[in-house]
Write a structure and sequence with these properties.
single chain, 246 residues, alpha/beta, Rossmann fold, seven-stranded mixed β-sheet, 37% helix, globular
Length: 246
């Protein structure tokens, strides 16, 4: 993705932090185990958004700093996690000091940065032996009804099975982990989830209405769910961890 295209799409998240925080899922604890080195004491969560993954790092007893370019998202993060030092910045320019972290994390955010510049910045703020860890949640499109749901939602973060995130030469080849899990959501919550995606946020009113109408038909008429009925939604979580070269 070109820098111009990344900036265009990412601009959709400059507002709507409360809505994003209310509808986006968390991550499997096993993924956090995989991403965080056992010796880690200091973590930097970049592209932290409203602090969904930041909270999981904090729950591991880590000292956590969060970096996020959207002031609206940071406002929600400050409200829910006042103990976290949170600063406005990007993966390419965090403004943090050299050699100050044991792990740098990106949750649902690496595709918004220039991977070579962000790798160099992560390497700068990591201590020797530190790790850069990336994670994505996605709808499990190996399930046929979920595959169609993802297409209707225009879920752009569904990766091919052979996907590997690009990293700079500052890091060794990444190790990967994968987990399947489920979340209980109503049809109404699934529609709200679709509204938190960059495709919807950037769309015209006519396109937004069409997405909502298609989801309403698919969930309630085609699949036959009732309003308010819990739906078991399969998720797939991919994570990668890469150690800083000496």
């Amino acid at each position: 993705m070109s820098a111009a295209r990344r900036h265009e799409l990412a601009a959709a998240f400059r507002a709507g932090g409360k809505h994003y925080d209310a509808v986006r899922p968390s991550y499997p604890p096993a993924a956090v185990d995989f991403m965080v080195p056992g010796h880690a004491r200091d973590a930097v969560d970049i592209g932290a958004g409203t602090g969904i993954f930041t909270a999981m790092l904090l729950g591991r007893g880590l000292r956590v700093r969060a970096v996020e370019p959207s002031g609206d998202m940071l406002e929600v993060l400050h409200s829910r996690l006042p103990e976290v030092i949170a600063v406005e910045g990007t993966g390419e320019r965090t403004g943090l000091e050299d050699s100050s972290a044991d792990v740098v994390t990106y949750a649902q955010a690496w595709h918004w940065v220039d991977p070579m510049q962000a790798s160099s910045e992560a390497a700068r703020i990591l201590r020797p032996g530190g790790k850069l860890s990336l994670v994505w949640n996605q709808l499990d499109v190996s399930v046929s009804w979920v595959h169609r749901l993802a297409r209707i939602m225009h879920a752009g973060d569904v990766h091919r099975p052979d996907f590997a995130p690009p990293l700079g030469q500052e890091f060794y080849a990444p190790e990967s982990g994968q987990w399947t899990w489920t979340q209980q959501l109503t049809g109404e919550q699934l529609i709200e989830l679709a509204k938190s995606r960059s495709y919807y946020l950037r769309a015209s009113e006519a396109t937004r209405a069409r997405v909502e109408s298609n989801l309403d038909w698919y969930l309630y008429e085609h699949l036959g769910h009732a309003e308010g009925e819990p739906i078991t939604v399969p998720y797939l979580t991919h994570a990668w961890r890469a150690r800083l070269r000496s």
